[in-house]
Amino acid sequence: MRVTEIFFSIQGEGSRAGRPCVFVRFTGCDLRCGYCDTAYAFHGGVDMDRAAVLAEVARHPARFVCLTGGEPMLQRELPDLARDLVARGYEVAVETHGQRPLDALPAEAIRVVDVKTPGSGEVTTDFAYLDRLQPHDEVKFVVCSEDDFRWSREVVRRHALEGRVQVLFSPAWGQVAPRDLVRWMLESGLDARLSLQVHKVIWGPDVHGV
């Protein structure tokens, strides 16, 4: 497996924001979203086998692990690693763009799927995976404009995501003011959650490994 970094911090976004978490960031992504804040994970990294990753995770006290990237589902052994972690009693979240098959992941893993809006430059066109998500999974929309929000709102309603999975809206950093996104959410009446990147508020937008 190709790994960019493993670090211990707090989860910065989503419904579990603020929780201590061990992050395993894998190298490589097959998309190039305009708002990407982890482009440093596109290349480089080091090769680690599953045993080495598990040993590094075990050095930290958190029982919550986030497998992220890049795009973690590009790693052939990612489902096996997630299964190993679940078997060791960890709560496991996998942050993914959803355009790679997710069915091999253990049922216990939390799928945090970033649906790509038109403003990302990599708009999602295949939504089949949304119908297979479970109640503990999350769907995130990074909104770059009000048009992005309207597009996202239609996806949420077309696929009946409200009340079935956690729906998250996040303002693209530096492109949408959080107060504007809040207003759009309230006006829409959607049953969704605002997700701010609190790690950027704490440490700034350019710090890695936090």
Description:
The chain starts with a strand and ends in a 7-residue tail after the last helix. The chain has one domain: TIM Barrel (Alpha-Beta Barrel), CATH 3.20.20. A 9-stranded mixed β-sheet has the order 3-1-2-4-5-6-7-8-9, covered by helices on one side. It is built from 5 helices and 9 strands, in the order βββαβαβββαβαβα. The relative contact order is 0.16. The chain is α/β, with parallel strands linked by helices. Helix 3 (146-158) links the parallel strand 7 and strand 8.
Topology, element by element:
Layout: E1 2-10, E2 20-26, E3 46-47, H1 50-58, E4 64-68, H2 78-87, E5 91-96, E6 110-115, E7 138-143, H3 146-158, E8 166-171, H4 178-188, E9 193-194, H5 198-203
Parallel strand pairs: 2-4, 4-5, 5-6, 6-7, 7-8, 8-9
Antiparallel strand pairs: 1-2, 1-3
Function: Catalyzes the complex heterocyclic radical-mediated conversion of 6-carboxy-5,6,7,8-tetrahydropterin (CPH4) to 7-carboxy-7-deazaguanine (CDG), a step common to the biosynthetic pathways of all 7-deazapurine-containing compounds.
Enzyme class: lyase
EC number: 4.3.99.3
